[in-house]
Amino acid sequence: MFDIVKIAYSMIISEMCTGLNIxxxxxxxLDINPAAADMLSLFVQQLAGVRINSIDTLINKADKAMxxxxxxxxQQLHL
Length: 79
Known about the structure:
mainly alpha, Beta-Lactamase, two-stranded antiparallel ribbon, globular
């Protein structure tokens, strides 16, 4: 039988606009929702299992610039 709470939780997390990362004590990304991956201009599949301090190496200079632009725009919208 399926657990409706787990299914609902998963759907809410994956559909929300706020970025969410779940990281263990060793700094490994256990889960990341699409909004967080989009903020980094990466795919969820690229980030799962990656050490949080090595994500920077996944983002090239152009992606970093786009990330900063997106972050700035989102911050301006929340002001």
